[in-house]
Specification:
Layout lengths: L13 E11 L2 E7 L11 E6 L15 E4 L2 E3 L2 E6 L4 H7 L6 E8 L11 E7 L4 H9 L5 E6 L2 H4 L9 E4 L6 E2 L2 H11 L3 E6 L2 H13 L4 E4 L15 E3 L5 E3 L6 E3 L15
Parallel strand pairs: 8-9, 8-12, 9-10, 10-11, 12-13
Antiparallel strand pairs: 1-2, 1-7, 2-6, 3-4, 3-7, 5-6, 13-16, 14-15
Helix pairs in contact: 4-5
C-alpha cells in the first residue's frame, strides 16, 4: 500500500457498463467494468450518474452526480456500496447488468498506511464501511475490523469485509451499542495502532475524541454533499482546527483527525 497522494483521475468522465448489482441486506453492491489502468487508492471516490434517466424531470430539478467511495477493485471492475436514501441513489440502485453509468474518478486523497510496527483498526458505520474494504485488501497484515450498523438488516453489509466485529444500535446483531464501544475496548488492549474510520458524523466524532484522548493517530474518511468532486464549487468545506477550511473532495476525503476540532455534522456518511 503506497502513501497518500492527490487524485489521479482519468481526464473527464467516462462511460462504464454495469456488470452486476448484489444485495447485502438493505445495501446494494454496484459492480461496473472499468478498463482504465489506474488503480484507485483506498479512500478515494468517484462521481457517478446513470447514462439513462438521470434528468430528474419528475420534480423539475436535474440531478447532480453522486460521490461514492470505491469499495473494491477486482480485475477491471470497480465496486461501490449503495443505499437508497434519495432519488439519485435510488436510481443507481435500480440498475441492472448491461446498463451504463458515467464515472469520474478516482478523486481525492486516500489513506496512508501505518508506519512499520504499528497495527491498524478499521472502524466503519453504515454505508461508510465501503472504503475500509479496499483498505483491508491493500494492507499486508490483518487489521482489526469494527463495524457498526443501525440494525441486523444493515449489518448484513458487514460481509463486505473479512472477520469483522459488529455492533448494532438496536442489539439485533452483535454488540448492543455504538461501534465506538468496541473501539474503546480494543485500544485499551493495544494502543500501538493507527485508527481508520468512515461512517456517520456522530460515529466519526466519537472515533476522533477517543483517539485524541489516548494520543492515537487516526485518519477519517469524510463524506459531504458535492457538486463537482474536484474543488471548484467549495460546496463540501469543513472547518480546520487552526482556522480556514478543508475541501472534502480535494483536501480529503481522508484527513488526519488532528486537523479537526470536531467532525462537522454534515461530513459523515448516511446512517
Amino acid at each position: 500500500m503506497s502513501a497518500r497522494a492527490p487524485a489521479s483521475a482519468a481526464f473527464g468522465r467516462r462511460p462504464a457498463t454495469v456488470t452486476g448489482i448484489d444485495e447485502l441486506g438493505v445495501y446494494r453492491l454496484l459492480r461496473v467494468a472499468d478498463p482504465w489502468e489506474g488503480a484507485p487508492q483506498p479512500g478515494q471516490f468517484a462521481m457517478l450518474a446513470t447514462v439513462e434517466h438521470w434528468d430528474g424531470l419528475h420534480d423539475g430539478r436535474p440531478y447532480l452526480p453522486r460521490a461514492f467511495s470505491v469499495a473494491r477493485r477486482q480485475a477491471q471492475e470497480l465496486h461501490f456500496l449503495l443505499e437508497d436514501v434519495g432519488p439519485g441513489s435510488r436510481r443507481l440502485c435500480e440498475l441492472c447488468a448491461g446498463d451504463r453509468v458515467w464515472l469520474l474518478g478516482p478523486l481525492g486523497r486516500g489513506f496512508t498506511p501505518p508506519p512499520l510496527g504499528r497495527g491498524a483498526i478499521l472502524v466503519g458505520g453504515g454505508v461508510g464501511i465501503a472504503p475500509l474494504a479496499i483498505l483491508q485488501d491493500a494492507l499486508d497484515f490483518e487489521a482489526t475490523v469494527l463495524l457498526g450498523f443501525r440494525d441486523a438488516a444493515r449489518a448484513r453489509g458487514a460481509a463486505l469485509l473479512r472477520d469483522p466485529l459488529v455492533a448494532t444500535d438496536d442489539g439485533s446483531a452483535g454488540h448492543h451499542g455504538p461501534v465506538t464501544d468496541l473501539l474503546a475496548v480494543r485500544i485499551r488492549r493495544d494502543a500501538n495502532v493507527v485508527v481508520y474510520g468512515c461512517g456517520p458524523a456522530g460515529m466519526l466524532e466519537g472515533v476522533r475524541a477517543i483517539c485524541a484522548d489516548h494520543a492515537i493517530p487516526a485518519q477519517l474518511a469524510l463524506e459531504a454533499a458535492m457538486a463537482c468532486g474536484f474543488g471548484a464549487c467549495f460546496g463540501c468545506v469543513v472547518p480546520r482546527r487552526d482556522g480556514g477550511y478543508l475541501r472534502v473532495c480535494v483536501d480529503g476525503p481522508v484527513v488526519d483527525a488532528a486537523e479537526l476540532d470536531h467532525v462537522d455534522e454534515h461530513a459523515g456518511a448516511p446512517e
